[in-house]
């Protein structure tokens, strides 16, 4: 069937438009498809990594329950080496730090905690690691370094733990008045169910009464 004049003009116009923009459209479409494929591939890779890391973390929990320090360290090393971006690596490092500290290896404990702080990329675990590292440094009498870790604004959920640790450090520095202030702040920020509440109250009760000026 022959095209009439109007149809021929429309086809000619469409052909001219395609000749001008066709390559650009194909290039853009190809780039979009490749981007979608890359995104889906990355999501698949992340899910696979998370699944494999979760299996290892289950092994770690069993090792923690069995107090198998060697296994805890082994699994933590694998998590950090193979799956450092996953949340399981951060949790594994915290477990390994505790195991190292309790087994008398503070240097290894500090290395694990610093990894969580500097490299894990998970702020919620970074805050926990800061409090724990401050505790290790407190044991080593590195008071100034420890105090820096628990000073500054933090989310409300961690404010009690940070203030409590500051109180521990300040008391060790021979500053009971400042320790009292930190512990009182910790107590004020703790709700009735907070696990540290009773311990903080005991610390406050054990302090000598403040000197009256």
Defining traits:
213 residues; mainly alpha; 9 helices; 80% helix; elongated
Task: Furnish the topology, listing elements before pairings.
Blueprint: H1 5-65, H2 69-82, H3 87-102, H4 106-119, H5 123-139, H6 143-149, H7 156-172, H8 176-189, H9 197-206
Description:
- By secondary structure, the protein is an all-alpha fold.
- It contains 9 helices and no strands.
- The radius of gyration is 29 Å and the shape is elongated.
- Give the overall shape, derived from the CA principal axes: elongated
How would you classify the helix and strand content by structural class? mainly alpha
Strand content: under 5%
Q: Rg to the nearest angstrom?
A: 29 Å
Q: Percentage of helical residues?
A: over 70%
- Number of distinct beta strands: 0
Brief account:
The protein is mainly α. The protein has helices at 5-65, 69-82, 87-102, 106-119, 123-139, 143-149, 156-172, 176-189, 197-206.
């Amino acid at each position: 069937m022959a095209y009439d004049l109007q149809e021929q003009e429309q086809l000619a116009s469409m052909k001219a438009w395609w000749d001008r923009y066709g390559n650009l459209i194909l290039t853009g479409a190809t780039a979009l498809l490749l981007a979608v494929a890359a995104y889906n591939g990355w999501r698949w890779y992340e899910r696979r990594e998370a699944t494999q890391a979760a299996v290892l973390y289950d092994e770690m929990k069993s090792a923690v329950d069995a107090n198998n320090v060697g296994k805890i360290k082994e699994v933590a090393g694998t998590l950090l080496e193979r799956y450092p971006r996953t949340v399981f690596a951060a949790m594994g490092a915290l477990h390994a730090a505790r195991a190292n500290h309790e087994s008398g290896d503070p240097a290894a404990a500090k290395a694990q905690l610093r990894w969580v702080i500097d490299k894990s990329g998970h702020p919620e675990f970074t805050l926990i690691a800061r409090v724990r590292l401050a505790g290790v440094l407190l044991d080593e009498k590195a008071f100034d370094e420890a105090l820096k870790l628990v000073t500054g604004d933090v989310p409300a959920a961690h404010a009690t733990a940070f203030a409590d640790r500051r109180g521990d450090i300040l008391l060790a520095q021979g500053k009971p008045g400042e320790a009292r202030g930190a512990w009182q702040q910790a107590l004020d920020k703790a709700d009735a169910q907070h696990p540290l509440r009773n311990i903080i109250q005991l610390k406050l009760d054990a302090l000598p009464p403040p000197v009256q000026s």
